[in-house]
Design a protein that fits this description.
Elements: E1 4-14, H1 23-30, E2 37-49, H2 61-76, E3 79-80, H3 81-84, H4 95-106, E4 114-124, E5 127-131
Parallel strand pairs: 1-3
Antiparallel strand pairs: 1-2, 2-4, 4-5
Length: 135
């Protein structure tokens, strides 16, 4: 299987907490991440499909870029995830949950003939979550 990957960047803030816990318990479990803090996220979008014999391309990257910008970057960039994105009501805004949210937003909006096979979301240079669409 041929896989094509394109990288994107966005900035967003989040905070880990459980509303039913006391501030002390939240600080104990989440440490400094209990406070609002931001990240410079890097998103790798990996696609597969048939290579067009005339162009040699697997995907129209401008159409892919437009889908990512409209469905992922526009709502997330410079957001406070848990406050601005309704999907996160009752969910932690972790990278693990964020990559699933991105998949659900992006997969249905990709150009015809292109299939999402993997997302890799870097929260920091040393931590990332990867998702392939399987529950």
């Amino acid at each position: 299987m041929l896989i094509l990957t394109k990288k994107f960047h966005f900035n967003a803030a989040h905070r880990y907490h459980q509303p039913e816990w006391s501030p002390e318990r939240n600080r104990e479990v989440f440490g400094a991440d209990y406070r609002n803090h931001g990240h410079n996220y890097e998103l790798e979008v990996s696609l597969t499909g048939e290579v067009d014999p005339e162009t040699g391309f697997l995907a129209d990257l401008e159409a892919v870029k437009q889908a990512v910008e409209e469905r992922v970057l526009a709502p997330l960039d410079h957001s406070t995830i848990q406050d601005d994105i309704a999907w996160f009501k009752g969910r932690q805004p972790s990278s693990e949950n964020l990559v699933v949210y991105i998949w659900e937003q992006l997969a249905p909006g990709l150009p015809t003939g292109v299939r999402l096979v993997r997302l890799r979301l870097f929260e920091t240079p040393t931590i990332y979550a990867e998702y392939d669409g399987r529950a």
